[in-house]
Amino acid sequence: MIRTVKPKNARSKRALQAKESKLKENVKTALFVTGATANKACHDITVDLAALKKPDIQRFNKKNEILPFEDASSLEFFSEKNDASLLVFSSNNKKRKNNLTWIRTFGYKIYDMIELQVLDDFKLLQDFKKGSFSVGLKPMFTFNGAVFDSHPVYQHVRSLFLDFFRGEVTDLQDVAGLQHIISITADDVEEGQPLPLVQFRVYTLKTYKSGQKVPRVELNEIGPRLDFAVGRHQSPSPEMFKESMKKARQLEAKSKKNVETDLVGDKIGRVHVGKQDLNQLQTRKMKGLKKRFDQVGEDFDDLEYEGEEEHVAKKAKK
């Protein structure tokens, strides 16, 4: 592990503070590591994937002798040294051709891993007509196939890609920023058959006038076009999963007393009112509400009312 040293200047102090835990974490950095057996195809594929993730990437040009599923200590060291929680390790051999190992870390420890092997019929950005989008924009995602909701391996794939390309979390929405979309497709899993391929496609959005309020939208593929075969995968331990799902108390929504939200989303409040004595209720003082103006029948024998009537008569004689 990296030694914890006391910062000697302001620059190193800021670097250490950037690695500390925060209530709202920074955008995750992806580190692309080249294996000792990686070929030119692995290099070109990782360059195109890094272009989709820019600017939050780092790439290693030097090859490294690493076997992620046997010993991942070197990857944990790279993760801590470069403050990167996402890693893509590329390798190539006869058994696993054009193999990309996607790795996530938590606390600079391996969280989960999955191997996605690129088939030979892939196409890169340079194989398509010129088309681009602004760097740093968040992509839209579509996952086509019920398998992404039912099968644990493909749930892992969906979680991985969403976490990898999510970018900065913000509440601001701008239609001009919706420039590209990543489409991931997989067929249903059949018993006795190998796991279906994961088809990775990238499109740009173009809008045209349609003569209506809503414009006409067209998708143009810009690449890369990759077909992944699912290989080995490693899930997080229950203890690490529970630890990673914890939320800071400062970020938890404070519950308000006697305020609830129903299934529709409407806010319902409950007000507790004490017992009221209506006899002492203060009403507006109007002349017509005085007792002497009450309309009563002949059989009315209220002594207080009669006494007040006599008082009014005496006052009139004077």
UniProtKB/TrEMBL annotation:
Domain Brix: 28-239
Keyword Nucleus in annotation: yes
InterPro entries recorded: Brix, Rpf2
Cellular-component GO terms for this entry: nucleolus
Keyword annotations from UniProtKB, A to Z: Nucleus
Pfam families: Brix
Annotated localization: Nucleus, Nucleolus
Key word Nucleus present: yes
Annotated signal sequence range: none
Tree of life domain: Eukaryota
PROSITE patterns xrefs: BRIX
Gene Ontology BP term (one): maturation of LSU-rRNA from tricistronic rRNA transcript (SSU-rRNA, 5.8S rRNA, LSU-rRNA)
Family: Belongs to the RPF2 family.
Name recorded for this polypeptide: Ribosome production factor 2 homolog
